[in-house]
Amino acid sequence: MPDPLLSPRPEGLYCPAGDFFIDPSRPVRRALITHGHADHARAGHGSVLATRETLDIMAIRYGEGFAGQRQPYDGPLTLGGVDVSFHPAGHVLGSAQIAVTRGEQRIVASGDYARVSNPSCAPFEPVPCDTFITEATFALPVFKHPDPADEISKLLASMRAAPERAHLIGAYALGKAQRVIMLVREAGYDAPIYIHGALQKMCDYHIAQGIPLGDLRPATMDKTEARALREALVIAPPSAFASPWVQRFADPVIGFASGWMQIRARARQRGVELPLVISDHVDWTDLTRTVTEIDPAELWITHGREEALMRWAELEGRVARPLHLVGYEEEPE
């Protein structure tokens, strides 16, 4: 009996025939990486195969020596008799699903994915397969993400209602920060947007890839300048709100852009006055719609809440299994 095409190991999903791991949680000889978020892309591998953008992002985050070798994906290839191809995931810049095919069997590891419009990356591409490996970040029926444009309207309305207060919005450095900026620009806001220094390199990279972010200025002013800042939009990583940096601003409106802001208790715990429910992951509706659309013979579940999706699959007459991969904490999305 041949080895399974993919199987979970302590390091992550392993393909014996191709001798590679997908998004391994610890250093391995050969890694295929779906995208640049830290819970999927780690440094220290012998070699990394990923999209050009993901390789660039890993170099920005970890330094040029993040792997022994790196290979940009430029089309389907064969590794040890296994065909490998990358397909857009719609999550962040450079994000991809990885399809692994041997003979008539195909498994698609989706990484993280989204079905809503995101100008920074190509839209999700449904790939026919026998086994679909889905994330389960928001795999509960309660999660139904609103239109991101409506959330940005709330932000702009708050800025008009309180022009004397700077609005500080927490957004993660890769993907979320740039998406919030693009949504604000699409809503017609063309004034300068101030960004925390931790976002600068990633924003610069997006701009270099032709993604228009408009007039961005550093939010590294001293306390006097920060307290004088009015009618301003400032984007910063959430970690900055627990640092002395935030104390430079006089009575700011604190916001946070995340799918988790649908849970009001989380917003209160973080001291968030303006929760913005903006996610780069599928919600329950889009997740179940995607599985129904692809219609795989088997569904594997990882990265999140497995129980509700397992129950949904059972009611739908679908074969499903949780992977219980180790080393994957809840992504701070």
From TrEMBL:
Matches recorded under Gene3D superfamilies: 3.40.50.10890, Ribonuclease Z/Hydroxyacylglutathione hydrolase-like
Annotated protein name in UniProt: Beta-lactamase
GO molecular function: RNA endonuclease activity
InterPro entries (alphabetical): MBL (IPR050698), RibonucZ/Hydroxyglut_hydro (IPR036866), Xnuc_lig_assoc (IPR026360)
